[in-house]
Amino acid sequence: MAVKDPTAVERANLLNMAKLSIKGLIESALSFGRTLDSDYPPLQQFFVVMEHCLKHGLKVRKSFLSYNKTIWGPLELVEKLYPEAEEIAASVRDLPGLKTPLGRARAWLRLALMQKKMADYLRCLIIQRDLLSEFYEYHALMMEEEGAVIVGLLVGLNVIDANLCVKGEDLDSQVGVIDFSMYLKNEDDIGSKERNVQIAAILDQKNYVEELNRQLNSTVSSLHARVDSLEKSNTKLIEELAIAKNNIIKLQEENHQLRSENTLILMKTQHHLEVTKVDVEAELQTYRHSRQGLDEMYNEARRQLREESQLRQDIENELMVQVSMKHEIELAMKLLEKDIHEKQDTLIGLRQQLDEVKAINIEMYQKLQVSDDAMKEKNEIVSRLEDKTNQITATMKQLEQRLQQAEKSQMEAENEDKKFKQECMSKSENLQKEISRKGKQLSKLKIEDIKEANKALQGQVWLKDKEATHCKLCEKEFSLSKRKHHCRNCGEIFCNACSDNELPLPSSPKPVRVCDSCHAFLIQRCSSNMP
């Protein structure tokens, strides 16, 4: 058989032991039928089993004096992950009789069971495995799936009501030993199936009741929210009602004022009617003595009475019209004020635009004056130009006449010029032939003279440039204006003024300077180092 991993076997044993402990605790608690206390043996064994499960794979942490291995570290981490666990952690730290971390962990487990939050606390802890890795090895029960199974089993403990006295109990020195005799089956357990069925039914009913309680709590919270919203809306309606009442009171005051004005008008009209009646009666008494004109006076009185009654009716109608017109006037005044404000705004804008237009007009007027001055100057210039154009047209006419005369004279001159050119061409051809012939006699003579001079001057040395300071002919000192010219045949040096003898050559476009003594070609000295 293949050898199993010992850590896996340990995890499986602890899981089975936790199942037996939780199942036995629930069954015994339901059969016990009342609140459990700290002396109840299945409850003590449950805490021992949970302590062994939490210790499995726990890392050894170094302290100043010795090595420490306790479960209080991961349990203390729960308050950071689950805010409702801050109260239980604070109460555990405040217990006076606890001295060791193990005792604080045992007290924490008991308080969590009484709160029925042990499953929630440990579920929040096993989810954060990156934080648990600081306290447990990778093969620990809390790091594997067995830890999640145990947390799921702990949910069933919510049906148990426990009242544990943690204060004054010696939790530091307790020895956690599992009593397996409580979980071994005997013959009496065979007949307990019906009781298990009853217990399961009771558990189902309790779970149903708890779920129903949660739903009722959610409905109650929603109803509270609705009540709050209704109260807010009620306060708003009360405020609106108060505003409406104030408006009604104001309208009643206005109505009362109008009615008082109406009564005053009616009293005045009644008084006027009474006065008229008295006058009528007096007139009737005075006219009763006389029979003449009695019918006319009676008719006149009736007519006046009708007029007064009609006047009274007209006054009442006018009063109603004035009341309605008063309301219309108030509305019209409000609209008129609004219109006035708008017109004031537009008037301000129009004034600004008017100022801008005035500034633009001033600028345009100034530019217009400048342009007028310029136009006057241009008109004067145009008049001057017109005079000049008239003068030019006159001169152009004169020039055209002169041009016609010049063209005629040009035609005559061209004819004469053609004749003169033909004569000159014939003369120049004859002269060119004679010049070429004379140049070939002279060139032969010069070449023979140069050869003779070269033979005579063989062995002579040219004067140096530093030694030749004066011209050979005029004996004047050389300068920038009097340049040096050297005869290549006799070696004499002349200035440019003395060496003015020139000889035309057919092979050269310019005449060549020649020496006065030997008639050889002269060359200009360019530098003092020339031999």
Q: Explain this structure to me?
A:
This protein is mainly alpha-helical and 531 residues long. It contains 11 helices and 7 strands. It has helices at residues 6-32, 41-55, 72-76, 78-81, 86-94, 101-115, 118-127, 129-132, 145-154, 193-288, 294-456, and strands spanning 61-62, 67-68, 484-487, 493-495, 502-503, 512-513, 522-524. It has a 3-stranded antiparallel β-sheet, with no helix packed on it. Strands 1-2 form a two-stranded antiparallel sheet. Strands 5-6 form a two-stranded antiparallel sheet. Strand 1 and strand 2 (67-68) form a beta hairpin. Helix 5 (86-94) packs across helix 6, helix 7 runs antiparallel to helix 9 and helix 10 packs across helix 11 (294-456). The longest helix is centred in the last third of the chain and has 163 residues, at 294-456. The protein is flat, with a radius of gyration of 73 Å. The model is unreliable at 525-531 (pLDDT under 50).
Short summary of the structure?
A 3-stranded antiparallel sheet has the order 4-3-7, with no helix packed on it. It has a two-stranded antiparallel sheet with strand order 1-2.
Record the SSE blueprint:
Layout: H1 6-32, H2 41-55, E1 61-62, E2 67-68, H3 72-76, H4 78-81, H5 86-94, H6 101-115, H7 118-127, H8 129-132, H9 145-154, H10 193-288, H11 294-456, E3 484-487, E4 493-495, E5 502-503, E6 512-513, E7 522-524
| Arithmetic mean of pLDDT | 79
What does the main sheet amount to? 3 strands, antiparallel
For the largest sheet, list the strands in their spatial order.
4-3-7
Task: Supply the number of helical segments.
Answer: 11
Principal-axes shape call: flat
Helix content: 55-70%
Report, as a whole number of angstroms, the end-to-end distance: 130 Å
Order of H and E elements: HHEEHHHHHHHHHEEEEE
Cα radius of gyration in angstroms: 73 Å
